[in-house]
Write a structure and sequence with these properties.
Number of domains: 1
Shape: elongated
Number of helices: 3
Structural class: mainly alpha
Helix content: over 70%
Order of helices and strands: HHH
Oligomer: single chain
Largest sheet: none
Number of strands: 0
């Protein structure tokens, strides 16, 4: 079954506890550990892209803000996104 996408074999070392979690999740979903890792990676990449998009949207609102209270609030929100808290 060829999908037309090239496949790259990649070796990853995982801590024992993380590998156990992946195997447990895979078993619960009746997937191989490899397929479970692939889904987790794909989901993680999508989450990171969403976070990046949200940051850029917030930055645009910050740059466009003229009310000092809005500037302060948006600046604080950007700080929490970047530095946590």
């Amino acid at each position: 079954m060829r999908t037309g996408h090239k496949i790259v074999r990649q070796s990853v070392s995982l801590p024992v506890s993380l590998a156990s979690q992946v195997r447990g999740m895979a078993a619960g979903r009746k997937l191989s550990a490899n397929r479970m890792l692939l889904q987790l990676i794909e989901n993680g990449i999508q989450v990171e892209k969403s976070k990046e998009q949200a940051f850029f949207e917030l930055a645009a609102r910050f740059r466009a803000a003229t009310d000092p209270e809005d500037v302060q609030r948006l600046g604080d929100e950007m700080g929490r996104m970047v530095f946590g808290g």
